[in-house]
Specification:
about 280 residues, alpha+beta, 5-stranded antiparallel β-sheet
Length: about 280
């Protein structure tokens, strides 16, 4: 699933193109991709057509487009394989195009492409957030992410240190800190020399703060390189891949030497997925 850097790459690509433009036409090609819109595909097309997109916004892994009037937003849930691409409106597109959104005075349209149809688009009501802004109701419970200007690192450190769960499990809890997924959790833990299952409550305030700083660093570096692309499902709005996978120190490097000590990186089962660590630098 795309994590913060990959979603932010998409947001930055879409924002200048959609900002201030009216939706001229909407076509739902696969009804499963609007299943979160309770009134159905036809209502989705009608309710979105004619609305002006104010901008592209993000919190953690969640992406949305506030509409004129600031009462509703178009929310994108990318799921495992969802993509938002800008493609010429007269092009046919690939076999997995699920929704097409045409904009006035624009030669390219926004297309939601989703091979596995786990993701989708829907319209949601906007509600006040904790800083005087507004967010979609379905995003209101999501914590701020480390790249958010309003991110309160001291408060997150305190919250983490009250948890007895393993530190990686806590990093993946989007109600504590958002945007960190499996890839960047492993990378941050490697940089901080921490085992993924160490209880968060056992960490000092300084060590917890260091871990958050490492997570911020690695996601900032990934963002600068267009995100991490392991296959064609992780691309920007123009279909181009990021290249941060070449800079990974832990994730996906099973059997390869640790860049710090030379010991082979190990892969272990974790929450129906995998964790990668150095057995010497990140001892149990």
């Amino acid at each position: 699933m795309p994590e913060l850097p990959e979603v932010e790459v998409v947001r930055r690509g879409l924002d200048p193109y959609v900002r201030g433009h009216r939706v001229a036409r909407v076509e739902v090609l696969h009804e499963r991709s609007v299943r979160r819109h309770e009134s159905g595909p036809s209502a989705f097309e009608q309710e979105l057509t004619g609305r002006v997109i104010r901008c592209a916004s993000r919190r953690g892994k969640y992406l949305w487009f506030p509409l004129d009037g600031d009462e509703r937003a178009l929310v994108a849930h990318l799921g495992m394989s969802g993509q938002l691409l800008l493609e010429p409106r007269d092009s046919q597109g690939g076999p997995h195009v699920r929704i097409r959104i045409g904009l006035d005075r624009r030669s390219r349209e926004v297309r939601f492409v989703d091979q596995r149809t786990f993701g989708g688009l829907y319209l949601d009501e906007m509600v006040p957030d904790d800083a005087g802004g507004r967010v979609p109701a379905t995003v209101a419970h999501i914590a701020r992410d480390p790249l958010d200007p309003a991110f309160d690192a001291a408060s997150v450190v305190a919250s983490l240190r009250r948890r007895d769960s393993g530190i990686k499990r806590c990093l993946l809890d989007q109600s504590l800190v958002s945007g960190v997924g499996n890839i960047y959790a492993d990378e941050a833990l490697w940089r901080a020399r921490l085992h993924y299952d160490r209880p968060a409550s056992s960490l000092s305030r300084a060590k917890t703060g260091e871990l958050l700083a490492r997570a911020t660093d690695v996601m900032s570096e990934a963002l600068a390189q267009g995100g991490t692309s392991f296959d064609a499902l992780y691309v920007n709005v123009n279909g181009e891949s990021g290249w941060f996978d070449r800079s990974l120190d832990a994730y996906g490097r099973e059997g390869e030497p640790c860049h710090r000590c030379g010991r082979p990186i190990t892969r272990e089962a974790f929450m129906n997925r995998s964790s990668y660590r150095c057995p010497k630098c990140q001892r149990r």
